Structures are given as C-alpha cells and as structure tokens.
Amino acid sequence: MARYDEIHRRSLDDPDGFWREAAEGIDWHTPFETVFDGSRWFAGGELNTCHNALDRHAPDRAALIYVSPVSGTERVYSYGELLDETARMAGLLRQLGVGRGDTVVIYMPMIPEAVIAMLACARIGAVHSVVFGGFAAPELAARIDHARPKVVLSASCGIEPGRIVEYKPLLDAALAQAAHQPSRCVIVQRPQAVAEMGERDLDWAEQVAKAPWTECEWVSATDPLYILYTSGTTGLPKGIVRDNGGHAVALHWSMKNIYDMSPGEVFWAASDVGWVVGHSYIVYGPLLAGCTSVLYEGKPVGTPDAGMFWRVAADNHVKALFTAPTAIRAIKKEDPSGRLMRDHGLKYLFLAGERLDPDTYHWARELLGVPVIDHWWQTETGWPVAANCMGIEPLATKPGSPTVPVPGYDVRVLDENGVECPPGVDGNIVVRLPLPPGCSPTLYRDHARYEQAYLSRFPGHYLTGDGGHLDDDGYLFVMGRTDDVINVAGHRLSTGAMEEVIATHPDVAECAVIGVADALKGQLPAGFVVLKSGVTRSAEEISADLVRLVRERIGPVAAFKQVSVVARLPKTRSGKILRSTMRAIADGRDYRPPSTIEDPAALDEIAEVIRPA
Ligand code: COA
Ligand code: AMP
C-alpha cells in the first residue's frame, strides 16, 4: 500500500501542491490565482470545459461510439465530428438568446444529441440541467421551475424494451404545469415516434444544419458548468452545482489514477446521461482525458440478450466497463453459468451506484477473470470518494468494501456525538473539509439548504448520508443510507417524495415508504398506509390507485409497486413515525425499539408485515 499511502497522505498534507500539479492536465486560458482560497478551487482561473473535452484533442480520433440496439443504430463520432456538431449547436443556442450563466434543461434519451447538447452549453458558458427520462411530467415541471431554463432541449421519444416512451407529450404536460416557461424547445425528431410540433418548438436537425459554428467562451473556474437535481429527503430535489475548474481537474485526474485510462483508450459507462455517472463518465471524464466513450442505448438484458454487454465490449475494444451492480445481477439471472461472457476483452469492471453484494462480486470476478472494482461516490461529489485506484497501485480487494479513500478525501466515521468510531464500528461516514475539487460547493439557489443538509450535523465535516465503518487496514465498508434516500436499480430516489404523493390520496390518513431489499434491484420501495376511518373502498383498489399515482407523479423509474394497508404505524410518543426502525427490520438488522415508542405492539405488527415469518 506504500504508493497509495504516500499519494493519499500528500493530497491531505499538501492539497495546494497536489491539485496544482493535477491542474496541469487542463488547458487554462487564464491561470488561476489560488489553488484553494478557503471556499473555492482555482479562483481567478479561466477555462472552457468544452475546449478541454473536444477542441484540444486530435480531430480524427474516435470520441464517441453510439451503440443503440433498441433502434438498430451504431455510429462513431470522431473528435472533429463531435466538435463540429457541438459548435453548431452552440451557435443555435446563442441565436436563441442563451448566454453565459443562462440555464438550459435537457430531457433526452441516450442519443448522441444529448452529449452534444451538454457540451454545447459548456461551450458558451450556459449551465445545463439534464433530467432523467424515466421521471414523469410533474418531476420535470418541478426541475423546470427551479432551474428556470431559457431553452429546453428534448427528443420526440425514448425507446424502452417493448415500448416507445413519447417524451414530447411528457414535456408538453410538464410545461403546462410549470410556472416558468422557456422561450423555445428544440426537439430531435426520431423516426420511432415523430412528435407534433407547437409554436415554440424547433426541429433540431433543421436548425443545427444552418446554425453558425461558434467558438468557446472562456468562463471562470468557479462558474457553474451544470446543475443536476438529485433526491433528498423531501419531495423537492436538491440542485447539485458543479463548477467548471474543479470538475475538469478532478475528472481528468480520476481517469488516469482511478480508472487507469490513457488517451485513445475506450471507456464505457453503461449508465444514463440523466445520472451523475453519465455526466462524469459517459461525457466529461473520458472526453477530458482524450479517451473514446461508448454511449449505449439499451439494457444489460433483453436488448437482445444477456451477452450484449460483452459483445459491445469486445467489438469496440473497451478497456474498462463501469456499471451498477444491479446490471450484473440482471445478467447473472439470465446467464448464470456465464455462457455468453466469453471473449469480452475487458481489463476492468468498475461497479458503483449501490452496495456491491459479495455474491455478485465473486460471480463477476470468476467468470470475467478481471479485477472487479467496487467504488463509492455520490451525485454531490461527482467522482469517487473510495476506490481501488488502478492507476496508482492495485490493492488487495475485500468483498463488500469499495477499498480505501481516494486521494483528496479525508474520510472519517463519527458516532452520533461526533466522536470518531474505532475501526470496525459503524457510524456516520463523513469527509473532513475541505472537499476536494469537483465536489458540489452549493445547492442551486439554496446555499442555506446545502449548509443545513451537509455541513451542520458535524461542523467541519461533510455528511455523506451513508453509514458504515473503516476497518483496521483503513478499508471503508458502506452499509447503506442513514436517511430517506433509497437506491432502486442504481437509481437514487426519495421515499419522502413518494410519501408526499401518497398523502394526497383522499383515502389515506398517513403513510410511510421505506426501501426493502430486492435480489435484482438492490432495493425496492414499499409503502405502508393507514386509511381514514369510514373508507369503504377495498385495500386492493386503493393500493392500485397509489401505484398509479406514484408512477404518474414521480415516474416509472420509482418502481413503486408494493403497498400494504395497515391498522397503524409505529410512532414515538411525540408522533414521529419510526422509519429508521422500520428500515432496520426491512434490512434484517438488529433493532431496539426506542424508549420513546408510543406502543411497542404497533412495531411488532408492522414487523410481521415487513418480514413475514
Ligand atoms: N425513459 C423512460 N422510462 C424509463 C427510462 C427512461 N430513460 N428508464 C427506465 N424507465 C422505465 C422502465 O421502462 C421501467 O418501466 P416499467 O415499470 O414500465 O417496466 C421502469 O422505468 C424501471 O426501469 P429500470 O429501473 O430500468 O428497471 P427495469 O426492470 O426495466 O430493468 C435493470 C432492470 C437492472 C435491467 C435496469 O435497471 C438497469 O439496466 N440498470 C442499470 C443501472 C443503471 O443504469 N444505473 C444508473 C446509475 S449508475
Ligand atoms: P447517487 O447520488 O445517485 O450516485 O447515489 C449515491 C448513493 O448511492 C450513495 O450515497 C450510496 O448510498 C449509494 N452508493 C453508491 N455507490 C455505492 C457503493 N459502491 N457501495 C455502497 N453504496 C453505494
């Protein structure tokens, strides 16, 4: 561990020197004045993220490989081609009145135009906010109202196995609900479902074809590059802000040091541009490092089969594949003997987004015959907090652990009183401030919420919201969230948001939603509802209403399908529902009813529903 130890120690002892050196991997228009001024990284510096991701690389090198089994399309974009389309899209945005600091919402499936849209915003200093396609219209409307975009970029449809998801009617419904209105919507027309266009809508292909090629605008290192909304504990998502300078430096550094990727090598993050993994490792990371990135529009299974990941990897000479454990579990279910896994050509499999269970780890490790690297991070950090850094020094793995803190992160485990836990004892996982470059420095238009959510619980530390421990060797074990966030098939969702939707049903008196373990998706939401007295409709009818309501208001991605009607919910004497005890029961952990419990029998009753004998 000597090399890792030395680099990690240096990153904490001399962050200025460490990150100054890392910043040499980025082209600066104006050099920064300070590396870290106590609150911001690289203040005074000017750069452009799109320049660093596109313009500076060899134009004939492959930048993006689009593989879309669901539409039967494959296309390779060279850096020159991607730059050309991006620069013209940037020109169109300018013509539509979008300038530096303006926001643009992107609601798109996994098509190259989504990547072009993000980079085009970066090129002119506009701030993009991508909304995942699996969210329903009200969620999109909430993000539009918060981000207040000048323009929305979207597509006529996405393609899910067995069904076409028409995005344009969803966008129209969202705009009908939103208070804020963009001046224009630019729509990519896909042949699978051509959208009806309204007065403010423009056709992407027609407009970009005649738009002027546009140069990069230099922005401050501390200017925002994007906003990405993520689930918090309430229905109102948190607008994570990423700045240009810190983000470019950290992601560029991570490609070599964590993922062992060099320019020209092929990296594939099988995620979605709507999530942070897509932002960091489909779009920005690989392109900042001059790698080739695979953009995959399909699923691990069923498009057409469980061998697709391995064929795409082999055909495109992918060195490192990054996906969520749930994708591997889906493949394992369909192809348990690994019959379709031969000849993948991969050097590494990286997994993140949820806990990697040891069974899945061992299965993938044995059948793929390559290192399987669990690593842990969050939308807030934008890049890994704990990992086995392949570009520094491969360390021995311990199943169930994402290995060790990444250089730049001073990870600690604190008990409820803020005292450091001894090795092996679970507590709150925190990062001692300052956070390294790339981590979100604030929440969009709500710095008070940032301070309250992340910095107030343990002063001087960033609260990750995850619980776990460090062992004697300094390996981190992440056991799960300590709040109302759940991870469903690697998708981060808020149980609080689901409760808010359920509570609007006229027959529901009160409710609780918790995550319960699921063999495929890791967790699934389960709702427990108490009905108002005098309700005559059946529990089945009301449950069906609630499932439909969550799907319509939050989206299919919530996968909310389990509702139990119960006589009462376990509470404290002050009326607080015992969600964390319910979570402990669902996870099969030991639990002790709090001394403030109102009626212990209520807890026994709910335990029987959650985990029937
Ligand atoms: N647009 C519209 N709908 C979408 C969507 C999108 N971009 N993405 C998902 N959905 C819908 C699905 O069609 C599905 O709808 P259904 O209830 O009608 O079947 C629902 O949302 C749930 O989707 P998903 O979570 O993908 O579950 P699934 O059962 O279709 O597939 C897996 C299960 C494991 C194959 C799938 O979750 C997967 O590939 N996960 C990979 C992990 C990943 O990408 N994580 C991102 C963070 S790294
Ligand atoms: P997201 O912001 O969508 O990336 O989700 C972040 C959350 O996913 C974390 O706070 C963890 O709860 C969970 N998570 C991500 N990666 C891992 C991992 N490798 N092991 C355990 N949990 C993880």
In which range does the helix fraction lie?
A: 25-40%
**Second CATH tier, the architecture of the largest domain:** 3-Layer(aba) Sandwich
CATH domain class name of the largest domain? Alpha Beta
End-to-end separation: 46 Å
List cofactors, ions and other ligands: coenzyme A, adenosine monophosphate
Structural class designation? alpha/beta
* Major beta sheet, strand line-up: 3-2-15-14-16-17-18
CATH topology of the largest domain: Rossmann fold
Low-confidence stretches: none
- Tell me the count of domains: 2
Strand content: 15-25%
Q: Give Rg in angstroms.
A: 24 Å
Domain AMP-binding enzyme C-terminal: 498-576
Domain AMP-dependent synthetase/ligase: 57-433
EC number: 6.2.1.17
Family: Belongs to the ATP-dependent AMP-binding enzyme family.
Describe the protein in words:
The model has no long low-confidence stretch (mean pLDDT 96). The chain contains 18 helices and 29 strands. The protein has two domains: 391 residues, Rossmann fold, CATH 3.40.50.12780; 122 residues, ANL, C-terminal domain (GMP Synthetase, Chain A, domain 3, 2-Layer Sandwich), CATH 3.30.300.30. A seven-stranded mixed β-sheet has the order 3-2-15-14-16-17-18, sandwiched between helices. Helix 3 packs across helix 5, helix 4 packs across helix 5 and helix 6 crosses helix 7. The protein has 613 residues and is of the alpha/beta class. It starts with a helix and ends with a helix. The longest helix is centred in the first third of the chain and has 17 residues. Helix content is 31%, strand content 24%. The site of coenzyme A (COA) has 24 residues, from strand 7 and helix 12.
